[in-house]
Every structure is written in C-alpha cells, then in structure tokens.
Amino acid sequence: LLNELDHATDQWGVKVTRVEVRDILPASSISGALEKQMTAERFKRATILESEGHLEATINAAEASSRSAIIQAEADSKAIVFTAEAEKKRRQLEAQG
Fold it and tell me: What does pTM read for this prediction?
C-alpha cells in the first residue's frame, strides 16, 4: 500500500513514508469467521495447556513414586545392616561370657 501510494504521488513531488489504516469495519461474515477462528484458537490453547498439566502431574507422580521406592529401599538396607551389626555384637558378647 505504501509503495503504491508513493508511486502514485511521485509525479506531484510527494514522498509517502508512512500509511496508517484506521477503523476497518469488516463485513459481518468476516467478523463471524474471525470470531470462530479466535474461539477455536482459545479452545486449542486451553486443550494444550490442560494436556500439559495432566502430563506434568503424571510425571510428578511417577517421580514421587520412584523417590519413595528409593527411600524405602535405603531404609530397608540400613535396617538389615543394623540388625546384622546387632547380631554380631550379641555373638561377641556371648563368646566373651
């Protein structure tokens, strides 16, 4: 648009450097189509965000379960070591009389 206006006014010695378009009133069919498109985009974004939220929640739950299992395994391992050390100490004391 700028180039066309600049070219058309060149013969009068006018240089067009900027064009501003204001108050565009599209036809109602175009407005309706634009509204439908915006509604569809909002719905799409909402669906994506909801899906990402579910994914993040599932990942967090899996990580929590994994950490819980690791902590439980470490506790079980320490319990076995303590039990073995206590048994060893008991046998030493029995052997000493």
Answer: 0.53
- The amino acid present at 79, given as its one-letter code, is A
Would you give the end-to-end CA distance of the chain in angstroms? 107
Element (H, E) at 95: helix 28-96
The answer to whether residues 19 and 2 touch, using CB atoms and an 8 Å cutoff, is: yes
Taking the C-alpha atoms of residue 15 and residue 7, their distance in angstroms, rounded to an integer, is: 8
Sign (positive/negative) of CA torsion 20, 23, 26, 27?
negative
Work out the mean pLDDT of the chain and round it to a whole number: 95
> What three-state secondary structure class fits 64?
helix
- The confidence score (pLDDT) of residue 24 equals 85
Residue 18: HSE in the Cβ half-sphere, 13 Å Cα cutoff: 1
